Amino acid sequence: PRRLSYKERREFEELEKRIEFAEKKKTELERQLALASSDFVAVEAAYIELQSVNQQLEKDIDRWATLAELA
Asked: How far apart are CA 32 and CA 21, in angstroms?
């Protein structure tokens, strides 16, 4: 069975950190959306950022899962 290369191990570790950070950011943005429900500009900005965070988080989790299978 193939093992992770040094570069893949580093990427795996970095992905874990990025996923953790993104999950915290997602929680914070969701909180901001709930608090700023009457401020359209703030809601729109938080929603756009939340979409971006969710997309990147999904990519990072997929890549992490791929590397985890090799680990």
From this structure: 16
| Contact call for residues 18 and 64 (beta carbons, < 8 A) | no
In tens digits, the chain (71 residues) has pLDDT values of 689 999 999 999 999 999 999 999 999 999 999 998 889 999 999 999 999 999 999 999 999 999 999 98
Q: What is the pTM of this model?
A: 0.86
Which residues are CB-contacts of 70 (< 8 A; sequence separation ≥ 6)? 1, 2, 3, 4, 8
CA–CA dist 20, 30 (Å, integer): 16
Instruction: Name residues whose C-beta falls within 8 Å of residue 55's C-beta, 6 or more positions apart in sequence.
Output: none
Query: In the numeric block, which tokens belong to residue 43?
Result: 């809601």
10 Cβ contact partners less than 8 Å away, ≥ 6 residues apart = none
